[in-house]
# Entry
Amino acid sequence: MDVLIRKNYDEISRTAANIIAEQISMNSKCILGLATGSTPIGTYKELIRQHKEENLDFSKVTSFNLDEYLGISIDLDKPYNEDQSYARYMWEELFKHINIKKGNYYVPDGLTEDPLKHCEWYEAQIKKAGGIDIQLLGIGGDGHVGFNEPGTSFNSKTHITALTKQTLDDNYELFYKKSGIPREKMPHFAITIGIGTILDSRHALLIASGKRKADIVAEAIEGPLTSQITSTSLQLHPKVTIVLDEDAASSLKRIKHYKHVENLKKKFSL
Ligand code: GLP
# Structure
């Protein structure tokens, strides 16, 4: 596990975007796993900048999003003024600004008539594409990755999940800001790729920012493995990069060690 500590949010965003851009430059047909929430917005802004100013080319890239609320629209062709789906978020924050091809970006369908079947289909699409090369992740207040809430099996694949009260509380502000939908109408269920799906990715890239994430980030990185904090599962992943700002890193016990490892790796170009 590489833990990279940066001064502030802008630096995390630049570091994460550079790691993703490097993957795209190495393999123009790479498969990206994408995340939502407030944290990745800066990463997407930097990827958009690199696309516009440095010709970062998404024309052969395929992407799969982690998750979607159940019961709200996925339609990527409609004007997005009435729903707060993650599909809409992705369109607004990234897809409409870059040259990724229509049909090459996937978000679970929050309006599917057969959610269980859709989960199987989504998982199969990821497999068919050859698996995820780099999976971007944020971390929820209860330690979830994707919408893998406490108690989710480390072997889980794409599935339906019931959101915890904490997740609903945490996510309501962002949800409401865009949608105006009252708290009681916020979806209580979601589709998410599983922990097993995330562990199958070839590289996991988790970003976190701010003091409010510090304790849960420390649990995820240095705490014992437990399905009660599903981000601890990343300790089982063979290639993980975690990019934190100083606030999000502030509860870690081994900060000096992580900085030392980063410097050594730089020195020996590892
Ligand atoms: C949601 C998403 C997660 C994301 C989390 C954190 O719950 N399903 O994938 O990591 O929000 O959001 P934020 O970055 O806004 O703290």
